[in-house]
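Q: I'm a student working through a structural biology exercise. My instructor gave each of us a protein and asked us to get a predicted structure, then write a short paragraph describing it. Mine is Beta-lactamase-related domain-containing protein. I'm not confident about reading structure output yet, so if you can add a plain explanation after the tokens, that would really help. Here is the sequence I was given:
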Amino acid sequence: MIYSISILIVSFTVIFCNDFADYNIVGTTAHGWEFVRDLFLENFIKEKDLGASIAVYYQGNPVVDLIGGWFDETQIKPYDNNTLQLVFSTTKGIVAMAVAICVQRGLLDYSALVTKYWPEYGQNGKENTTVADILSHRAGLPYVLSPVDQYTNWTAMIHELEEQQPLWVPGTTHGYHSTTYGWLAGELVRRVDPKKRSFGQFVKDEITTPTQTEFHIGLPPDMQDRVSPVVPQLDIKNILNESMLTYFEIWNDPKIHQAEIPNAIGMSTAWSIARLYAAFIGNIKNKFGQRLIEDEFMRRAIKSNTPANEIDLVFQYYSVFAMGFHRYDYALPAYGVDVFGHHGAGGSIGFAAPSKNLTFAYVMNRIQTNPAIIIDPRMQLMLDQIAARINSQFF
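A: Happy to help. First, here is the predicted structure for Beta-lactamase-related domain-containing protein. I'll explain a few features afterward.
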């Protein structure tokens, strides 16, 4: 039997419970949202999570903000609200926000040719590529040939992408640009930024500072000790070969964290990601809230640019992309139309369901390695139950 003491503060339940304490779970849930913390706890009991955090905004208010588990496999240091987590391609959603801000300011146009802003890009069959092609993974440049240690050199990566020949005619189909999207979209932002900032600095100045959140693309060295290292899930750890284990060394390398690699190397928390999506859809009610973008431009940013039933040429499964955002209507049908966001390798995700006035984020250090998984099983039951309750007007 679970014994708990609940203290109601501004409609929140503060957790003081033996079972939760055993797994270092702390945080808040609004009245009626306690089921989320129970399911969150279950992931630790079943060893699906080592350290993780989850956050939900609903109708403009933060209703779930939970953190738990361990910082690393030594299980000495708790995973706490100071912990930053590598969130892989969940980073791409923040890149899409940066581009949308530039579109709203008249600096970029989704329908314009890339060469209008970046003349050097127009070579070797890429002359007719549009901004929308880059953002919706239709540019034909899903890979780079450079070694990983060159990823830290923004200029070198941009030069390589300028010279590459596309694998398909840009705009004719889509294939996930897992390792190139961030540089392609990020360079567009850099080219039109009147202040000529680095992409990471643009995100800090225009996105995270106004919303009082953290999302680092190019981690300051003095924050490195806050980053929880990623580790494989227990059921696959013993079957990974040496080359696969090397990838974990790369992902945990401080030099990679501190470089601006907006394809996948973003450091954040679930609370910050959920809050950023809430700000993007204009759904923060407290005095610190600032809408990142007007509704008209938000709608443009989340409109699908993938033809019906078109299969991803790279991964060979069905996917739908808007202007940098992954569309989740097919994966999360209970959340209504225009569900958008981005998930990352390992299981992390951030998304918004505008018609339900809800945003959701989950990040973790124990990662799964199946790229075909869109919604990680650790959060599927949570999402099912949240949808059931908001659709029944339980709250």
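A: Here are two points you could use in your paragraph. The longest helix spans residues 377-391. The longest strand covers residues 61-69. It's a good idea to check both against the output above yourself.
Q: Great, thank you!
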